[in-house]
């Protein structure tokens, strides 16, 4: 699908533990009181990967449809076989074993994105719903008031900019700290652009100030300051092409 150097693939269930850990590494490791805890991030990404694999939303125009893209490292060995596992590995929990098998075969996810496709107004309304509806009830150690502010400000500026117009929302783009500076972020952005162009939809995202320039280089436009609600995130839009 993508013409970029780094191959973007759809995430699979075995990627979920890695995605949850990557989320914490990318966004929460440097904060004394993180927004998320690891089990919560893993559970959330698990929901998104399962929903993305459900063919029902893709078969019709209605329904908010997620897409989880990953870029893997080159550590995989497609000629690897289960016999390569030692006795200790065979004794591990099944879910962990499946993850290890996948990583051994195709490599470990090092960067990822979470996209939402909203093709009609009903689906768009779902983008502005409560964060608990998407991520689930907070776990022990999380501060709900902080999450209310974080997500509330983003959703407010998102709604102001896009209204009920069908569009795609790039909610998360992330890379593990060991994989930064390799162009993975740009590859994921171009992957999102290509998908949006196939569907003829505009793209919306909330950007950290320090990466606004990167998004501008791939077609995003910074929105007027008066629509901004979040102190730390800048609303940006890429106009629809193709379709």
Automatic annotation (TrEMBL):
TM region positions: none
Top-rank lineage group of the source organism: Eukaryota
Keywords attached to this entry: Acyltransferase, Transferase
Positions of the N-acetyltransferase domain: 113-241
Keyword Transmembrane helix: no
Organism ancestry: Eukaryota, Fungi, Dikarya, Ascomycota, Pezizomycotina
InterPro entries membership: Acyl_CoA_acyltransferase, GNAT_dom, Trichothecene_AcTrans
Any Pfam family: Acetyltransf_1
Record protein name field: Acyl-CoA N-acyltransferase
GO molecular function: acyltransferase activity, transferring groups other than amino-acyl groups
Region (Disordered): 56-91
């Amino acid at each position: 699908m993508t013409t970029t150097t780094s191959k973007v693939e759809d995430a699979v269930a075995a990627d979920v533990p890695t995605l949850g850990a990557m989320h914490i590494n990318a966004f929460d490791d440097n904060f004394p009181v993180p927004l998320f805890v690891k089990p919560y991030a893993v559970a959330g990404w698990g929901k998104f990967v399962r929903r993305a694999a459900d063919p029902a939303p893709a078969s019709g125009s209605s329904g908010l449809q997620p897409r989880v893209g990953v870029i893997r490292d080159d550590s995989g060995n497609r000629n690897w076989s289960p016999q390569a596992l030692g006795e200790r590995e065979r004794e591990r929990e099944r879910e962990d074993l499946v993850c290890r098998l996948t990583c051994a075969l195709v490599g470990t996810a090092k960067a990822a994105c979470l996209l939402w496709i909203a093709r009609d107004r009903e689906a768009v309304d779902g983008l502005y719903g409560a964060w608990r509806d998407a991520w689930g009830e907070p776990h022990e150690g999380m501060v709900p008031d902080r999450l209310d502010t974080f997500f509330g400000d983003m959703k407010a500026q998102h709604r102001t900019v896009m209204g009920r117009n069908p569009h795609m929302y790039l909610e998360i783009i992330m890379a593990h700290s060991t994989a930064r500076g390799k162009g993975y972020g740009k590859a994921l952005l171009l992957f999102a652009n290509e998908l949006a162009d196939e569907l003829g939809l505009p793209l919306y995202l909330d950007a950290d100030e320090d990466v606004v320039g990167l998004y501008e280089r791939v077609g995003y436009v910074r929105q007027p300051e008066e629509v901004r609600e979040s102190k730390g995130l800048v609303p940006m839009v890429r106009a629809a092409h193709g379709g």
